Amino acid sequence: MRIETYRSWSALRPDNERWELIAGVPMMMTPPTMRHQRIASNLERLLNAGLSRIGAPREAFQRVGVNLGVEHYDPEPDVVVVDRPSRNDQRYSDRFYLAAEVVSSSDERFLDDTVELYRDHPHCLCILLIRQDRIEIVRETRSPAGTWTRLTLTKPDDEPIVEAVGLRCLVKDLYSGTMS
């Protein structure tokens, strides 16, 4: 299925259904776990606080569509930093600066393709892959020269700093409310 057809079709689906177009196939997404939602909420809150602190005209959102310019792929990152919306009914953004995925083992089969598409987006500065089953964050950042650097953080007191979007926190802040 092509992206235009998918978006027309998905607009007719009930609001309680969540779909993504992956490799040309519409896939119904199962409801995320509460741990997944807590991590995404923590990240969204920390990003919005950081963006406000640095005075950036951007906002962080959960589950917003991003236009990747790819015919058969229409993902919704778990958390994304985009320019402030220009309309109240906006569902997609042409520019995104950070894309984060809260990852479970069932996501792994599509993860490499997703990350590659995010890297190819000209405005993306950072990709975060946050494991929900253990403390592990993979942070990929783009240098001004366009090269990507990968850092894996596994300690609660590690800092996944991303200055471009105001993110300054500890790993344990992202997992707050999820550790027993």
Structural notes for this entry:
The chain has 180 residues and is of the alpha+beta class. It has one domain: tt1808, chain A (Alpha-Beta Complex). It contains 4 helices and 10 strands. A 6-stranded mixed sheet has the order 3-5-7-8-9-10, sandwiched between helices. Strands 1-2 form a two-stranded antiparallel ribbon. Strands 4-6 form a two-stranded parallel sheet. Strand 7 (96-103), helix 3 (108-120) and strand 8 form a beta-alpha-beta unit.
What does the average pLDDT come to? Answer: 89
Helix content: 25-40%
Principal-axes geometry comes out as globular
What is the count of DSSP helices, taking H or I runs of 4+ residues? 4
* Element-level helix/strand string: HEEHEEEEEHEEEH
Uncertain parts: none
CATH topology: tt1808, chain A
Give the strand order of the largest sheet, numbering strands 1, 2, ... along the chain. Answer: 3-5-7-8-9-10
Name the features.
180 residues; alpha+beta; 6-stranded mixed beta sheet; 26% helix; 27% strand; globular
Topology of this structure?
Elements lengths: L2 H9 L7 E4 L2 E4 L5 H21 L3 E5 L2 E2 L12 E5 L8 E2 L2 E8 L4 H13 L5 E6 L5 E6 L5 E6 L17 H4 L6
Parallel strand pairs: 4-6, 7-8
Antiparallel strand pairs: 1-2, 3-5, 5-7, 8-9, 9-10
